[in-house]
Amino acid sequence: MKVLYDCVMKIVVTGVAGLLGSHYSRWMADLGHEVIGIDNLSGGYESNIPRNIEFIQEDILNTSQMVNVLKDAKIVFHAACAAYEGLSVFSPNNITLNTFQSSISIASAAIANDVEKFIYCSSMARYGTQNQTPFVEDMIPQPQDPYGISKLAAEHTILNLSKVHGMKTVILVPHNIYGPGQKFDDPYRNVASIMINRILHGQSPIIYGDGMQTRCFTHINDIKDSLINATFDSGVDGEVVNIGPDEETITILELFELIKKHMKFEGKPIFFAERPQEVKHATCSANKSRELLGYKSNISLEEGMKDLITWIEHSPRRDFKYDIELEIKNSLTPITWLKKEI
Predict the structure, then answer these.
(1) How much is the pLDDT for 2?
(2) CA 329 to CA 43: how far, in whole Å?
(3) Can you give the pLDDT at residue 341?
(4) Residue 277 covered by a domain
(5) Which of 97, 145, 148, 195 fits as disulfide partner to 125, beta carbons 3.0 to 4.6 Å?
(6) In the prediction, which pLDDT does 111 show?
(7) Res 4 pLDDT > 60
(8) For residue 199, is it left (φ>0), alpha (ψ between -120 and 50) or beta?
(9) Which residues contact 62 (CB under 8 A, 6 or more apart)?
């Protein structure tokens, strides 16, 4: 491993109130680094923010303020985004603004401050529908919703700017991350947490389509070493790397059965029409991350889901929040979102 740094660094983390940003910030602070976390608190929980970091409540779209915040920073870990695949078809302006434009804002501020390394957290939505699974990094991306398109466009723009201005950059592709700290009162994303929260409210989980969509899920603690290695290893600079398991592929219906078993729920799911542009089969190969970052799956899906269930059960009860406006309302809009039923 080619280690870039062996001293205390200033690391700036966007999306620090979210699942990924909060855990990464804690890991970096525990290693002794100076960590500044930024979040506008629109997509995470303030309670997630580690106490041993400096927190700035600000929107990263405020580029001039970001230039000030990033002064003397060595590394930027950019996890903030509006991570809504299905919703992006119906709120494209909001999602693209807070996915693509926000990414370019923080990247611009990083370059203005001569930041040495920029770590961009992309999404498996970049791949879209492919002829085979699992997805590998050298596939030609074919994103099929505004969110995936925005993620890929940000990748291209950041890599372009990095090449011009000499900033080291790595593109990480975490997929379906879950675990303690995940937002579970968001009706538009985080399928496992939505199911768990509905059951805790005495409601049956909702499944869109036939439930045969296939996914792999990544427990947050399983990617700790990979993210730390990606931060300090120069061997991944310029690379796109999937982060997460390619084992234990599961259908959404099977996921419901797993959650049902551990929560001792006796009901059945409620089925609604499939959501437009949803990718049916989406799993990512972990071979490159095993080779470059030493990735290894340690937490089984069953063990991880039990961990998530326990955390949500012991968290303050939260009703679902419909705080993102539906910009497009028509016959394709999921009726559950129009009626605010989950």
Answers:
(1) 44
(2) 22
(3) 72
(4) yes
(5) 148
(6) 98
(7) no
(8) alpha
(9) 105
Report the distance separating Cα 18 and Cα 181, nearest Å.
7
Tokens for 25, please give them. Answer: 């910030």
Q: 299-306: long-range contacts (C-beta < 8 A, 24 or more apart)?
A: 299/219, 299/221, 299/222, 300/248, 301/217, 301/248, 301/250, 301/258, 302/258, 302/262, 304/178, 304/179, 304/217, 304/219, 304/222, 305/178, 305/192, 305/217, 305/255, 305/258, 305/259, 305/262, 306/262
Cα(115)–Cα(167) distance, rounded to whole angstroms?
Answer: 7
Residues 56, 73: one domain?
yes
Please, are residues 158 and 152 in contact by the beta-carbon 8 Å criterion? no
Q: Give the model's confidence band at 1: pLDDT under 50 very low, under 70 low, under 90 confident, else very high.
A: very low
pLDDT, position 5: 56
3-state secondary structure of 215: strand
| C-alpha to C-alpha distances, 239 to 138, 143, 167, 170, 323, nearest whole angstrom | 10, 19, 13, 5, 36
Residue 130 pLDDT: 97
In the three-class reduction of DSSP (H, G, I as helix; E, B as strand; rest coil), residue 300 is classed as: coil
Q: What is the pLDDT of residues 106-134, one digit of tens each?
A: 999 999 999 999 999 999 999 999 999 99
User: Is residue 3's pLDDT more than 70?
Assistant: no
Give the residue among 130, 114, 138 at the shortest CA–CA distance from 241.
138
Task: Note the pLDDT tens digit of each residue in 252-282.
Answer: 999 999 999 999 999 999 999 999 999 999 9
Which of the four pLDDT bands, split at 50, 70 and 90, describes residue 6?
A: low
The domain total for the chain is: 2
CATH of the domain at 319: 3.90.25.10
Q: Which CATH number covers residue 111?
A: 3.40.50.720
**SS3 category, 241:** strand
Same domain, 239 and 304: no
How many other C-beta atoms can be found within 10 angstroms of the C-beta atom of residue 292? 18
Contact 243, 227 (CB under 8 A): yes
Indicate whether 147 belongs to any domain.
Answer: yes
Per the structure, the complete domain to which residue 123 belongs is given by 10-179+219-243
- DSSP conformational letter for 137: T
Distances (CA, A) of 294 to 39, 226, 341: 30, 6, 43
Shared-domain flag, residues 19 and 45: yes
